[in-house]
């Protein structure tokens, strides 16, 4: 029943008596991962979730690969200590720059957003635009993933450095945000794209703004929908789906809990209780 999962060898590491009941860990630099959390609530309502936002160190999109790798290792170490059964990197930047490396280092199954997003994009279009953080765009992760699936499509990527700070500051409906978005979309509209991928988990929060600037025939791809579908599949393959009622979602951040709680209420519809985590004491045991 578990035979085709790439994570099969990791099953032995679950010491929990009832591993199905363990939470899924998800992380992002900030509120972007809430777009993945919303999909988890929709598609996997029985799962308990631990959410981590690395708010003290955002935005990730202008960081180096070495920094992203270090942050990702620290977060995964902490999530493993919380005994999660699976991790979703609800962050494209980490998925682009750190996923392959950390998969070799950690025993917990880890899913990234890029491959599910790329698979969904090639099903929809032939002229594909990707908006992403500068680090994700520069990595060419989407371009490579899309062209590997279908070399006959065309891909254009645009790095959008201003989006994450604007979203984290809750300035989505500010006219300035729309002006910035117009500038980022311009080169993609010149190429007459038929599909646009949200190459950053923060960006689905901008959908109304982007939609107002895009021709109606351009289809939007939100990789969050597809990574959660992939997660459901993996849970089934590993026999890890929770059939019991879930525990309340646990939220943790590296920065100010109140600030996250205030932004979170907007996207979650309730005020989340948020704890603060400091990484200074966490040993990166996998590396030693
Ligand atoms: N939401 C993340 C992503 O998908 C990180 C954005 C950032 O912190 O720059 O890339």
Description:
Strand 9 (250-253), helix 12 (257-268) and strand 10 form a beta-alpha-beta unit. 43% of the residues lie in helices and 15% in strands. The chain is an alpha/beta fold. The chain is built from twelve helices and ten strands. The model is unreliable at 1-15 and 283-288 (pLDDT under 50). The strands form two sheets. Strands 4-3-1-2-9-10 form a six-stranded parallel sheet, with helices on both faces. The protein folds into two domains: 5-112 and 226-287, Rossmann fold (3-Layer(aba) Sandwich), CATH 3.40.50.1860; 115-223, Rossmann fold, CATH 3.40.50. Helix 5 packs across helix 7 (141-149) and helix 5 (114-124) crosses helix 11. It has helices at 34-43, 65-81, 92-97, 99-105, 114-124, 134-139, 141-149, 163-168, 175-190, 207-213, 223-238, 257-268, and strands at residues 24-28, 49-53, 86-89, 110-111, 127-132, 154-159, 195-199, 219-221, 250-253, 274-276. It binds D-glutamic acid (DGL). D-glutamic acid binds next to helix 3.
Defining key terms:
288 residues; alpha/beta; Rossmann fold; 2 domains; 6-stranded parallel beta sheet; 4-stranded parallel beta sheet; 10 strands; globular; disordered C terminus; binds D-glutamic acid
Name of the CATH architecture of the largest domain: 3-Layer(aba) Sandwich
What string, H for helix and E for strand, traces the elements in order?
Answer: EHEHEHHEHEHHEHHEHEHEHE
What portion of residues belong to β-strands? 5-15%
The oligomeric status of these chains comes to single chain
Helix percent reads 40-55%
Terminus-to-terminus distance: 34 Å
């Amino acid at each position: 029943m578990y035979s085709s999962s790439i994570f099969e060898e990791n099953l032995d590491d679950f010491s929990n008596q009832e591993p199905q009941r363990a939470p899924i860990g998800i992380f992002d630099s900030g509120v972007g991962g809430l777009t993945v959390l919303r999909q988890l609530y929709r598609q996997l309502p029985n799962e308990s979730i631990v959410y981590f936002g690395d708010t003290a160190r955002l935005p990730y999109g202008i960081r180096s690969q070495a920094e992203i790798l270090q942050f990702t290792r620290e977060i995964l170490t902490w999530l493993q200590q919380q005994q999660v059964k699976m991790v979703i990197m609800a962050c494209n930047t980490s998925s682009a720059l750190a996923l392959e490396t950390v998969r070799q280092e950690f025993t917990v199954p880890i899913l990234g957003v890029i491959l599910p997003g790329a698979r969904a994009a090639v099903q929809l279009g032939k002229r594909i635009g990707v908006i992403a953080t500068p680090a994700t765009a520069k990595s060419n992760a989407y371009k490579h993933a899309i062209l590997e699936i279908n070399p006959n499509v065309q891909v254009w990527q645009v790095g959008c450095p201003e989006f994450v700070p604007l979203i984290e500051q809750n300035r989505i409906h500010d006219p300035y945000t729309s002006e910035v978005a117009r500038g980022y979309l311009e080169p993609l509209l010149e190429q007459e794209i038929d599909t646009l991928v949200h190459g950053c988990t923060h960006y689905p929060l901008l959908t109304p703004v982007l939609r107002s600037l895009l021709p109606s025939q351009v289809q939007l791809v939100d990789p969050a929908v597809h990574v959660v579908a992939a997660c459901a599949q993996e849970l089934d393959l590993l026999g890890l789906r929770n059939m019991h009622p879930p525990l309340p979602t646990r939220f943790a951040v590296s920065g100010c809990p109140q600030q996250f709680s205030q932004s979170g209420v907007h996207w979650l519809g309730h005020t989340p209780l948020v704890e603060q985590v400091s990484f200074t004491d966490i040993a990166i045991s996998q590396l030693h």
